[in-house]
Structure formats: C-alpha cells, structure tokens
Amino acid sequence: MIDGFVALYIFMLAAFTGHEIIARVPVILHTPLMSGSNFVHGIVLVGAMIALGHASTPFEIGLGFVAVLLGAGNAAGGYVVTERMLEMFKPSAGKPGDKA
Amino acid sequence: MIDGFVALYIFMLAAFTGHEIIARVPVILHTPLMSGSNFVHGIVLVGAMIALGHASTPFEIGLGFVAVLLGAGNAAGGYVVTERMLEMFKPSAGKPGDKA
Amino acid sequence: MSWLPTLVQACYFLAALLFILGLKRMSSPRTARGGIVWAGVGMLVAVLATFALPDMQNRGLILAAVLIGVAAAWWSGRRVAMTAMPQMVALYNGMGGGAAAGIGAAELVAHVQRATVAVPDTYPLRPENWVTEALHQVPAVAPLSPVALGLGVLGALIGAVSFSGSLVAFAKLQGWMDRRFVFPGQRVVNLLVLLLAVVHGVMLAAGHLESPVILAFFVLSLLFGLLMTLPIGGADMPVVISLYNAFTGLAVAFEGYVLGNEAMIIAGMVVGAAGTLLTQLMAKAMNRSLGNVLFGSFGAAAGGAAQEIAGAQKPIEAADAAVMMAYAERVAIVPGYGMAVAQAQHKVWEFAKLLIERGVKVKFAIHPVAGRMPGHMNVLLAEAGVPYDLIEDMDDINPEFPNTDVVLVIGANDVVNPMAKTDPTSPIYGMPILDVAAAKHVIVVKRGKGTGFAGIENALFYADNTRMLYGDGQAAAGQLVSELKALDS
Amino acid sequence: MSWLPTLVQACYFLAALLFILGLKRMSSPRTARGGIVWAGVGMLVAVLATFALPDMQNRGLILAAVLIGVAAAWWSGRRVAMTAMPQMVALYNGMGGGAAAGIGAAELVAHVQRATVAVPDTYPLRPENWVTEALHQVPAVAPLSPVALGLGVLGALIGAVSFSGSLVAFAKLQGWMDRRFVFPGQRVVNLLVLLLAVVHGVMLAAGHLESPVILAFFVLSLLFGLLMTLPIGGADMPVVISLYNAFTGLAVAFEGYVLGNEAMIIAGMVVGAAGTLLTQLMAKAMNRSLGNVLFGSFGAAAGGAAQEIAGAQKPIEAADAAVMMAYAERVAIVPGYGMAVAQAQHKVWEFAKLLIERGVKVKFAIHPVAGRMPGHMNVLLAEAGVPYDLIEDMDDINPEFPNTDVVLVIGANDVVNPMAKTDPTSPIYGMPILDVAAAKHVIVVKRGKGTGFAGIENALFYADNTRMLYGDGQAAAGQLVSELKALDS
Ligand SMILES: NC(=O)c1ccc[n+]([C@@H]2O[C@H](COP(=O)([O-])OP(=O)(O)OC[C@H]3O[C@@H](n4cnc5c(N)ncnc54)[C@H](OP(=O)(O)O)[C@@H]3O)[C@@H](O)[C@H]2O)c1
Ligand SMILES: NC(=O)c1ccc[n+]([C@@H]2O[C@H](COP(=O)([O-])OP(=O)(O)OC[C@H]3O[C@@H](n4cnc5c(N)ncnc54)[C@H](OP(=O)(O)O)[C@@H]3O)[C@@H](O)[C@H]2O)c1
C-alpha cells in the first residue's frame, strides 16, 4: 500500500498528464477520444480480477464475478468501438497532402 | 523513503507533465521558459538545507554550506532573471487586440 | 518465485505507460489510429500479469468471467451500426462504473464478514459452527486504513452513479426510453437522494460496516445516477456520457488506491482528468455550459413553446433538384443525422462525384455537432471516401454561403436552423449554425415533417428559397444520381 | 508536534503543484508573467517548510548560507544587462547543478564516515577514542538502498557535469574565454574521461565508499563537464545551456529520491523533461540537430575557410540613408545582436515612429535566433514599446521583401547572411535566413568590418544594392532621427 502523500502526488501528476494530453484536441476527435479513454479505464478489469481472486464467501465470489464480467465488457467493448471509429480516419489520414 | 516502483511512476508522470507543458511553446518564450525551469530546479536548495541540517563533521558541514549557498543562488538568481525577462512581455501582452 | 511480483509490477508500469502514450496518440488525427493499439497492448499486458499474481484464487471463475465478458462485448461492439456508437460507449462505460462499484462492494463486504465472523466464533471451540466456518473460510484481511476506506466508499459511490446513469443514457439514445422525465420538485428530490447516499457513505467510511448500511448505500447511489440522468434531454447525451466517463475514471482510480494498484490509479486518474476536460470542450462545442447541460431547462423549454411558423413547405421533384445542381457553379452539401440514419453517405458521394465531373464546385459543410456525436459526419464521409480537401468546417464555409448557388441539406435540421440566431426563446438559441439560408437556393432532403433532436420547428424549411425533397436520405440521393445520369445520356 | 511533518509534507505538495502550474502559465505568452510568481510562491513555501523540519541541526549556518546566496544572486541578477541574460541563466543553472552534486557528495561522505568510524570503535570501550568520537558525533545514518545509492551517484555525476559545463558556458558568453578550444583526438579523450568517471561511479554504487574513490569520481565528473563544453562554439551556447538545465533537473530529481523528498523529485523531473524538449525545440529553431551542436564541427569549419568575397563595401552617410527611407513606401527594420549591444532599440523605435508619421509602412522583421537568445529581439522591442502588430516573424515577412523599398539592418549579421543559402561549405549553411537581399535597397548599420557570432564573412555587405552606415547602433539611429527631423523643418 502506498502512503497518503505519495498517492496524492500520483493523483496530481496523473491528472495533469491527462489534462495536458487532451488540451488541444480537434472537435472531430472528441468522440473517438471519449471512447478511447473509456477503453483505458477498462483497467478496472484488473481490479475486479484481484477482487474475485481474493473472494472467499459465495456472496463475495458472486460480486467479484459480476465485477469481472462488467470490467471485461468495458475493456473489450471500449477497444472494439474505438478501433472501429478510428479505422474510419484511415483513408483521409492516408492522404496527408489532401488537407485544404 | 518511497519504494522503487512508486518512484518510477512518479518519475514517469512528472516527465510526461513536463514534456506536455512545453510541447507547443512559441519561440519567443524559449529563453524565459529556460530561465523559468532553471528557477524551478532551484528546489535543490531544500535538499541542500536538509543535507546541511543533518551534517555533523566539519567537512560535511562545509560541503552542506556550499551546497546551500549554490542552491540559494540558483533559486534567487533564477527568479530575478526570469521575472525581469517576463516583465518585458507586459506591454505587448497588455494590448491583446494588437496582434496582427 | 520472488521475481514474480516484481515482474507483475513491471507489467503494470508498462501498461500505464502504454495507456498514456496511446491516449497521446489518439488526440492527434495523424496518429490516432495507432493510439488505440498501443493502449490495447497495455491492457493485454496488465490482464495477463494479473493472472500470474501468486495469491489468486478462483482462477477458473476469473477466466470464465473474462471470456464471457470479452466475447459479449466484442460481438456487440463489432456488429453495432456506426450511428449507435455513442450509446455503445455509454454502455461500456456504465459497465466500467459497475465494475468499480462492485470492487468497492466486495471490499466492504469482505470487511463486514471479518468483523462479524472472525473474532467471536473461533474460541471457545463450538463444533456446531465448524461447518459454517469452513464454508466461509474467511482469510485474514488486513484492515483498511481510514483513507483507503474513505476513497473506496467514494469510488463506489461515483462508480454506481456512473453505472446507472450510463445505462439510462444508453436506453435513451437507443430509443428505449421516452426522452425526458420531469416532475415538479425534481431537483430537491435528487439532492435529497444524493445527500442520503453520502450520509450512508460517511457512516461506512467511519467504520459502520454493517450489511444494511452497505445495501442502502448502493441502492441510493444507483438511484441517484438514475434520477440525475432521467431529466436530461437526448441532445445533451454525448456530454453526459463524457462526464460519466470521467466519473468512471475517478472511481477506478480510487478503487485502485484501495487495492494498491498504481496502474489503476494512474489510468483512472488520467481518464478522470482527460474526461473532465473533454466534457467541457464538448459542451463548449455545443455552445452549452456543463451546469446548463446537467440542470438546465433545455428539454423543458423545448417541450413547451412549439412555435408556429408562417408559410408552407414547398416540395420539389428529384429531377428538378438534379437539374438545378447540375447547372450550378457552386454547390454545398450539408449532411446531418438523417444521412447517418439512412446510411446515405455513399450515394451522396456518388452524386457529388458526378457533379464534380460536370465541373460543378462541390464542398461538404460540416457542423461540429451534426449527427449524434462530435465528428460523426467526418467519420461517415471518410468512410465513403470523400477526400479531406472537400470537407469544410463551419467557420470556414459560413462566409462562402452567399456565393453558393445551391445548398443540399441532407438529413440535417437543428444545425441549419436560423432560429438559433433569431429566436431568443428557442432552446437552441445561441448555438452557432451553418448559415445556409444565405445561399441562393436550398434543397432539403428529409422524410417528412419530423423535427430534429431539439424537437423544434425550423424556419429554414419555410423560407422562400427553400425546396423540400421528401424521402429517405439514401433513396433520395439515389434518385438524384439517376436523374443526373439521365441528363447526360 | 506530530502534525508538523504532515504540514511540511503538505507544503512540499503545494510547492510541487505551484511549480507545475507556474511552468504551465510560463509557456503561454498571455499568462507567462504570472507563472514565475506562482512558482516563486511555491519555492518560498518549500524553503520555509524545510526550516520547520523537526530534526534539523545547524539552523544558524543554514540561514546564513541562504541569506548570502540569495543576496548575491539577487543583486547580480538585478543589475546585469538584458543582453547578458543567457550567461546569467548558465551561471545560476551551474549553481543548481553544483548544489545537487554537493548533496550527493554529502550523502556519500556521511556513509564513508559511518563505515569507518561507527562499528569498530564503540565496543569495547576505548577511552582514548572518545574525543574523536565526540568530535565526529556520527549519528545513526540509515544505510542507503542500492537503488538510492545508484541514483545518488548518478545525480552527483550529472550535477557535477552541469556545474562545470555551465560555468564554461558562462565564461564563454561573458567573453572571459577564447571561444573555441580544440585539439586533436579531443573526442577520444572526452570519452575516456567520461568512462573513468562512470567506472568510479559504479564502484561507489557497488559499495566501495572510500574517500579516494569519491574524490576521483568528482574530479573526473567536473573535468568531463569542462572538456565537453570547451569545444562548443558560442553560437550554440543557448542550446547547451538548455541541455545543462535539463541535466540539473535530472540531478535534482535523483538526489530528491535519495533524500525521499517528492517535491525535489517532481520539480526536478518536470524540468528534466521540459528542458530536454526545449533543448530540441531550440536546436530546431537554429536549424541544428542536438548531436550536431554537441559534437558537430560548427566551430572547426568556421575557423578554417575564411572565404574572400569579391567587391567592396560601399558606405553611405546618415543623411542620405534618412532621405532614402523617408521617401520610401515600405521599410523593413531587421534588428540583430548589435542593436542589443548598443541598446539602440529606443532610438530605432523613435526613428520608426517618425517614418510612420510620414506615411511610410514600417515593419520589424525578427529572425528567431537573432541576438543571443531566442526571443531576444522581441523582448527588446517590447521594452521599447513597439506594438506587436508591427513585428513580423521570419516566415511571414520573407515573401514581402521583394516589395520592400528599403531594409534597415541594424546590428544583424549572421541572420541575414545569404551564404547560408548559397555556400554549402559555410558553417551556417542550411540555417533559414531573412531574405533581405531581395529588397530594392539595403542599409546596414554596424561599427566596422566585425563579423557576427559565426565569425564569417557576409556577402550581403558587398552586394550592389547594399550600403553600409558605419557607427555604433545607438549613435547611428540617433543620427537618422535627427536627419529625419531636419528634413521636415
Ligand atoms: N454531434 C453531437 O455531438 C451531438 C450529440 C447529440 C446531440 N446532438 C444534437 O443533435 C442535433 C444534430 O443536428 P442535425 O441537424 O445533424 O440532426 P437533427 O437536427 O437531429 O435532424 C435530423 C433530421 O434528419 C431527418 N431524418 C431522419 N432520418 C432520416 C432518413 N432516414 N432520411 C432522411 N432524413 C432523415 C429528420 O427529419 P424527418 O424525420 O422528417 O426525416 C430530422 O429532421 C443537434 O441538435 C445537436 O445539438 C449533437
Ligand atoms: N538567438 C539565439 O538563440 C542565439 C543564441 C546564441 C547565438 N546565436 C547566434 O547568434 C547569431 C545572431 O545573429 P545576429 O545577426 O543577430 O548577430 P551577429 O551575427 O552576431 O552579428 C552582430 C553584428 O552586430 C554588429 N555590432 C556589434 N555591436 C554593435 C554596436 N554596438 N552597434 C552596431 N553594430 C554592432 C557586429 O558588427 P561590428 O562588430 O562591425 O559592429 C556584428 O556583425 C546567429 O549566428 C545565431 O545563430 C543565436
């Protein structure tokens, strides 16, 4: 377990990183980026796996199972949807000289 | 003392933060920004103070004293120089409509 | 195997790094496509590493749950139509929020069990209890620090709100739910529910880890997410989904703290911050403030005053419309949500190509919030193969409309509604629009007199220089194509 | 006082936050000025908090050192001329690197003492040793972890290199040192010194904490900084200073890890990354690669072939020059390092204002690396009060020179040297320049036949349409002003 202030530093720095990354994104990327960040918090799957991995009573196991199910859905669904959206950007990005 | 991986995370996130902050800076701010970041690492003064505050032999005390002296110079000098440079930007920044 | 935890840690570190790099790439059009792959590799690494953690039980169950979840989401995500993307994002985001809430619940429940079972029943030995004990098999769970407990509860609250809220958003966008749900005193009720949820959360954080409190806490949290989202109009949904996306990020970060998992903390926090900013940017693009989106009267006002507009809509035949454009010098095409519904982008592009062959100067004019998600039209046109240099942003093309002979509006409505500029009582008043009314002629393709997302009338359709070409978008574009071809032969 | 460490920690956190926010503001022209104040507040908070740390000794000495250091730096920083800013940054940066190296040295020395004194002499009691022990008073220092030891040594190495390197940079820019210092086999020697320094560092990190090793390590590190910087030409100094700035940041971060001080880690790392990127951006603005700056033959080539240029410089009188510009339609003024040296910006702006009053269209054309630091000319012109809209970037003004009647070059040389485009053997070949030769007439103000920073001839001064107005920048501008006023009266 990491102690309070170190966690605070990590929270702060991660927040800055996230904020700065998005700071100057064009409107047409808003939706793919929303979807992409939706995918990234699919890392909750890892947490759910740990919870289920440490569960012992049937109730806890049930809870953990649902959590893993949902987490896996977040991760996999987020990936597919984002990938499909960004796929669309291929043809236009393929002709860099085309942009008016 | 913070443990290895946590430190690694902090190093990584701080590096991203620093990188992203500078990513799109105009040429005319290069020098003030160099000077400003020079000031920021003046925080070494704090480390030097801690080193001198824990020094016990005369040699260590001498070393610590020099370190504090240098660190204080870094911090104070960096501030003054940066402040003077950025001061110059006041008149033009004062007329936001003026930029062609 | 003392190197194993270190290896797992290294994998988590790599995952966090890849997430950040991936998001960085996704925020620039040139590199966006690679970004999701980088992030995907990070996810894979993290999940595989977690399987390798030494003290994991229930590995079979975990594998089963992962496989089912992945398969279901993969399948649904693959086959859903491009137009349904926003609700899919809402759905998957809600699942993430639910997972975070589930982790929080599991942690809380584990500590309840320990508190009630572990101490009293072990000594003196009571054989009649051995069975239940063996069943429960409660291992030694280290007590949570107050900070961890507090953050865990907060994460569970936020996650639960994101869960139920996102599901409502999904249902609304999917058309499963009446768009608005308003009753008097709604805000007071919502506030009350939130307050009660928070009170129960504080009780939990203060150590009152009792099952009824936990239950009430989650029920209230879920209820609040529901109530908060119900009154919000559909047009604002992308903003709301983005907000819940940020919520889920935060929830994940907090639960990550409870589990001591830095990858979760960082990924969650990065998404939390990025999502918050993105939400603001989206709201700004739609000319709304975030507060206005969440508590505003957008929906309410639209429901009220349905203004009558003088005049009548003047229809036109496809043949006449085709001739008009064939002999025009400049034509602008304004696609909207209707083109997406009709999947008409390919036919539209075919038509535009025919015009270009005839020497007509054709541009596509894209409003930033045309369709149902930012960039919706760009995605569709890119899919159809329209080159970038024919596509113009609102700011670039608006000054050109007065020099345009014909504007072909296909399935767009709100984004070309002049009342956004003229009528201060209109719910979309103040939204910047495409100024198509300034062109010499306007041809509007839509199926009938249906309103757009804002549910309001559109004065453009009654203007003197506007003609209506009724029909499904794809069919109408097809007619235009064949009329144009007939002209040449 | 158990809350005290927490309060100090909170102060450090606040400082780190303010540093980041300050840097963020400094990287945008609108908010730059406030940024340094935010960062300054952060520094103040951190320093005051450190004084309050409970287990600090030598408080009087610390206070004295801080006061002396601050006073000296404040005084020198206040009174130095604007043109000397880059070397002052180098100086202060070197001090920071020195401080970081000092911290590393202090840590290493403390551990030597413990290793040699602490264990053997305490038991059995030997009264003859009590005096030395009392004198040394070695407190129980917790042994450093291998990671901490390694990072501490690395930080010391980088800090020492930054220290001596920055001092050389300072001396060069200050004119205390011949600009280049080259000898055959230099690179091999440098590499060898670095290698030896690293070997000693590895020995230290491996636990060989003996005084001779420590001494050799620092001497070698300092020597390497010296040797690495000596051969680099003055024109590249800003890039090099920026690099050492990033070095110091890294050194501070690593020593921060050793001391367990997160504020140092974060501030140092942020500067390390920001400085690295800034170094690259600067090098790019000067059309150089970083490798080329550090190991390139820029200086060497310039020393070699001093090309002869055919023709002669044709002088002009101030009166004639004033008339030419007074009756021109468009005039562009190109300031360079000479204007900074002569502090002529106020006179130049006075002259420009008189021209504008006469109806002449006047623009200032700024090369990104005119002067001795990026943005140098912008700062000076802003100081003189020249409005932003008269100042044009290189890319914007270059296409306009053919339509310009007179270009007044004042104290610029390298940045208008056409040989950067025509002569592949020139050391500045490939650097983008201001295309003033394309204008109808060029008037160059400089004191004589002095070369610019690159130390090379300039074909522009011999061109047919160029006239030389010899004299100090400020004096010449003053003459132009009075001639112009004489014209009107
Ligand atoms: N982009 C975003 O981020 C976003 C997200 C959510 C909401 N919004 C909101 O959505 C609206 C977008 O405006 P918009 O102009 O694109 O769309 P719109 O205002 O929703 O109008 C769509 C029009 O298309 C017609 N239509 C529907 N299906 C059709 C079909 N198969 N063939 C032909 N026409 C069809 C409809 O009329 P008929 O029924 O008569 O055919 C309707 O009037 C704005 O209010 C915006 O604020 C935007
Ligand atoms: N901006 C940066 O970041 C930066 C940093 C370091 C180096 N550099 C380099 O510095 C150079 C800058 O070019 P530049 O054209 O601005 O300057 P420059 O090439 O250094 O030329 C300056 C000229 O000004 C004249 N001068 C000196 N003092 C004067 C005075 N008091 N009155 C009138 N004239 C005076 C000198 O000639 P006389 O002696 O005949 O008067 C000299 O030829 C480039 O090579 C650049 O790469 C730039």
Describe this structure in words.
The complex is a heterotetramer, with two copies of chain A (100 residues) and two copies of chain C (489 residues). Chain A is mainly alpha-helical and 100 residues long. Helices cover 74% and strands 0% of the residues of chain A. With 489 residues, chain C is α/β, with parallel strands linked by helices. In chain C, 61% of the residues lie in helices and 6% in strands. Chain C has helices at 3-26, 32-51, 59-79, 85-118, 127-136, 146-174, 186-205, 211-229, 237-259, 262-285, 290-295, 298-304, 318-326, 337-342, 345-357, 376-384, 394-397, 419-422, 473-488; strands at residues 330-335, 361-366, 391-393, 406-410, 441-446, 466-470. In chain C, helix 18 links the parallel strand 4 and strand 5 (441-446). In chain C, helix 1 (3-26) packs parallel to helix 10 (262-285), helix 4 runs antiparallel to helix 6 and helix 6 packs parallel to helix 8. Chain C is elongated, with a radius of gyration of 28 Å. The N and C termini of chain C lie far apart (79 Å). Chains in contact: A-B, A-C, A-D, B-C, B-D. At the A-C interface, helix 1, helix 2, helix 3, helix 4 and helix 5 of A face helix 1, helix 2, helix 3, helix 4 and helix 9 of C. The structure holds NADP nicotinamide-adenine-dinucleotide phosphate (NAP) (2 copies). The site of one NADP nicotinamide-adenine-dinucleotide phosphate has 33 residues of chain D, from helix 9, helix 14 and strand 5. Chains C, D: It is found in: Cell inner membrane. Chains C, D: It holds the Pfam family PNTB. Chains C, D: Its main location: membrane. Chains C, D: Keywords: Cell inner membrane, Cell membrane, Membrane, NAD, NADP, Translocase, Transmembrane, Transmembrane helix.
